[in-house]
C-alpha cells in the first residue's frame, strides 16, 4: 500500500493526534514512519527575529536552540513508537513549514497530519499549512481532524 508514512509534528498535542492514524497505516502497509519537525520562518518571526538589523550570530543561536528542542522532542516520540515495534526515523528541517514538509516525498509515500482548527479570519490571515500541503503535494495526504474541544480559537 504505502512505502513510507510521513508525519509532520510541531510539538503540540494537536499535531500528535495524527499519530494513531499514521501508525495504523504504517502497520497495515508494513511501512516505516518518518517524523518531521520544521524550524520555520513563522516561528522565528513570532519571536521578533525577522528584522534585518538582527545579527547573524543571534539568529544562528536561536535556530540552533529551536533545532535542538525539535530533535529532543522527535527523539522522545520516536523512541515511544520504536518501543511499540515501529520502524521510525526523524528529521528536523528548516524553512517555510509547508515547503519543508514537502521537501522529499517519494512515490509510495503518504503524509498524515492534523488540521489545527483555525477558521474564519484567523485562517484567512494565517493561512493553513495543511491546505498548502494538500494543494502542493505529489503524494497522498491524510488530514486528521482534531478532536472536539481541542480546537484553536477561530477568530470569528
Task: Provide a descriptive summary of the structure in words.
This protein is an alpha/beta fold. It has one domain (4-144): Rossmann fold (3-Layer(aba) Sandwich). Helices cover 44% and strands 20% of the residues. The protein is built from seven helices and five strands; from the N terminus they run βααβααβαβααβ. It has helices at residues 13-16, 19-29, 41-46, 56-83, 97-101, 120-126, 129-136, and strands at residues 4-8, 33-40, 88-95, 109-114, 141-144. The protein has a five-stranded parallel sheet with strand order 3-2-1-4-5, with helices on both faces. The longest helix has 28 residues, at 56-83. It is globular, with a radius of gyration of 16 Å. The chain starts with a strand and ends in a 12-residue tail after the last strand. Mean pLDDT is 83; it is low at 120-126 and 152-156.
